[in-house]
Amino acid sequence: MAIPPALEGHDVLASAQTGSGKSAAFGLPVLETLLRRPERTRGTRALILAPTRELAQQITEHLRALAKHTDIRIAPVYGGVGMRPQIQAFRRGTDVIVATPGRLIDLMQQGEARLDRIEILVLDEADRMIDIGFLPAVKRIITKLPNRRQTLFFSATIAGAAASLAHDLLRDPVRVNLTPTATPVETVRQSVYAVDQEKKTELLLDLLKDNNIFNAIVFTRTKARADRLAGALARHNVGAEAIHGDRSQAQRTRALDAFKKGRYRVLVATDVAARGIDIADLGHVINYDVPAEPTDYIHRIGRTARAQKAGDAITFVSYDEAGLFAQIERSMGTSIERMEHPLMDTFTGNKLKAPPQVRRRTFRRRRR
To answer: Vertex 145, ends 140 and 97: CA angle to 5°?
Structure first.
């Protein structure tokens, strides 16, 4: 749906489920357009902005594969690694730059990022860029681009600040909408365990015992929890590594590569990894902590069941997370399958039943 209008030179405003092929949806038109209009002198003619290093690297790999038999050059620009290769990419006139806003601003301030010949701008996961605070940087970058350009705007959700940015950037865009509601792909089997917060690690270890879970990404809410959980798994002889924003790019890349090659059974991640990690045969996603937003839940579980393959998404819900979990179910308009386990708390209908001691504490606080 996105490719024909993009090839015709229209601006495109698109939203779609994670794992639905957005990299090709904008990548193929970008490459085709550059091939149609070859330049005698080299220069950066397409800029793709992405919110995370992992997503920028993933897009670069996809586009390089698509452009394998052409002379189009593609380079990533993101933080956590040395600037010299990125500076050289701009100086060589690399055709397509895939960048995170922060590092691109750094290179602009040094006078090393020339953007005056950009013909196509792509914003991928625009809502995520806004969520993590990149909106001022994105607006600053846009002021340095030519006014006459094509813009392709991809976002999982288009509302609020994302809708405002799209309105400012796009000229008479073609609208492509494959996500009328926040829903996961149909090939993901979802289930939930009600468990006390202190028993989550014990439950995870028990689920990993029988080897039905061959590999899994386990999502935690904070970096510290990710490190603690990875350490706990390793102490119980489960190969695990953590990936989050405090790890250097080299550490994150090594951990992800080792996980893909099967050296680790579990990758413990914060939401920095929810978008931009593409693992073809990931069997399980486990939400050790319930995410704060339904869209984050969709993006987390979208790491499995890629390209219509089957996958499992398991969520651990403690009593204090019951409200967040209910919000996710309301957003999707469905009830997720409840599982039973000896370590579990209980569900009453669709609601999590509070342990008696929690109910008594709450009652006393209210009376005071």
So the answer is: 95
Q: Regarding the domain delimited by 188-360, which CATH topology (the fold level of the hierarchy) does it fall under?
A: Rossmann fold (3.40.50)
pLDDT digits (tens, 9 = 90+) for 25-73: 999 999 999 998 766 557 899 999 999 888 899 899 999 999 999 999 9
H helices of 236-355, in order, are 249-260, 294-301, 322-332
Which of 78, 73, 68 minimizes the C-alpha distance to 34? 73
Among candidate residues 336, 324, 307, the one with its CA nearest the CA of residue 185: 307
Computed on alpha carbons and rounded to an integer, the radius of gyration of the chain in Å comes to 22
Distances (CA, A) of 217 to 71, 159, 241: 36, 29, 10
| CB neighbour class for 331 (10 Å; exposed up to 12, middle 13-18, buried from 19) | middle
Q: Which amino acid is located at 83 in the chain?
A: M
The alpha-helical segments, DSSP class H, found in the chain are: 3-7, 22-36, 53-66, 84-92, 101-109, 126-131, 135-143, 160-169, 200-209, 223-235, 249-260, 294-301, 322-332, 356-367
Res 171: pLDDT:
93
Half-sphere CA count of 294, side-chain side, radius 13 A: 16
- CATH class of domain segment(s) 3-177: alpha beta
Single pTM value for the model: 0.64
The 10s digit of each residue's pLDDT in 182-240 is 555 567 889 999 999 999 999 999 999 877 888 899 999 998 999 999 999 999 999 99
Instruction: Write out pLDDT tens, residues 148-169.
Output: 999 999 987 777 888 899 999 9
pLDDT value of residue 180: 47
| Distance, CA of 184 to CA of 192 (rounded, Å) | 15
Domain boundaries, the chain: 3-177, 188-360
**Would 3-177 and 188-360 be classified into the same CATH topology?**
yes
* CA 104/CA 116 separation, integer angstroms: 14
Please name the residue that has the structure tokens 């492509």: 176
The one-letter amino acid at 138: V
CB 283 within 8 A of CB 239: no
Distance, CA of 273 to CA of 300 (rounded, Å): 8
Q: Is 186 helix (H, G, I), strand (E, B) or coil?
A: coil
**The Cα angle at residue 181 between residues 16 and 338, in degrees rounded to 5:** 110
Look-up of token digits 């995170």: 100
